[in-house]
Amino acid sequence: NVLISTNLTLQDKVMRKIILFLMCLGLSVASSAQLKKVAFKSATASSYQNGEGADRLIDNNYGTIWHSSYSSTSFPVTLTLTLAEKAPVDVIRYVPRQNGTNGNWNEVDVEYSESTTLNRWTPLGKYYLNESSVSYDFEMPEGDISIARVRFRVRSGAGNFASAAEIEAYV
């Protein structure tokens, strides 16, 4: 466990980045500037295996996974997640499966939308995660952007599949 004193003079954004880094290292962090997890209300996937649907991306359980179809994964695989409420999200976290590497993301495009109804998407970036088993934080741009949805286009993954344990959002 790492305790961050509330007496630090770091600005909130810097503090949040430090906390995220420590959390990625698997450390438990206690602070008054703790990041707040934001809930998703729904998740959909263009490909999934029965029993391993997109709902598992937002079930708060690292032991369950979403997995693309075992028999017919065709890239890109698109995941669309809708927040329970619009929020000024700082970070979207991809948590790979905790057992094995099959489906860990390699190349992914990330977009976000400020609307739940309009089909308007803003590119966040193209990322190469190298099929890593380590969680990855996609940082949102600075500014007052409240997002309603996030979309991932997984272009390749380990074993020619795509999978994940969780997708998380933090403000």
Which residue ranges are poorly predicted, with pLDDT under 50 across at least 5 consecutive positions?
1-10
Radius of gyration: 16 Å
Helical proportion? under 10%
User: What count of helical segments does DSSP give?
Assistant: 1
Q: How many E strands?
A: 13
Main sheet strand line-up: 4-6-11-8-9
N to C succession of SSEs? EHEEEEEEEEEEEE
What portion of the residues fall into strands of 2 or more residues? 35-45%
Overall outline: globular
Task: Please report the distance between the alpha carbons of the first and last residues.
Answer: 22 Å
List the helices and strands and how they pair.
Blueprint: E1 2-3, H1 12-24, E2 29-30, E3 37-38, E4 40-45, E5 66-67, E6 77-87, E7 91-95, E8 105-113, E9 122-128, E10 136-139, E11 147-157, E12 163-164, E13 166-170
Parallel strand pairs: 1-2
Antiparallel strand pairs: 3-13, 4-6, 5-12, 6-11, 7-10, 7-13, 8-9, 8-11
Report what the structure shows.
This protein has 171 residues and is mainly beta. The protein is built from one helix and 13 strands; from the N terminus they run βαββββββββββββ. The chain has one helix spanning 12-24; strands at 2-3, 29-30, 37-38, 40-45, 66-67, 77-87, 91-95, 105-113, 122-128, 136-139, 147-157, 163-164, 166-170. The strands form four sheets. A five-stranded antiparallel β-sheet has the order 4-6-11-8-9, with no helix packed on it. A four-stranded antiparallel β-sheet has the order 3-13-7-10, with no helix packed on it. It has a two-stranded parallel sheet with strand order 1-2. It is globular and about 40 Å long. The two termini are 22 Å apart.
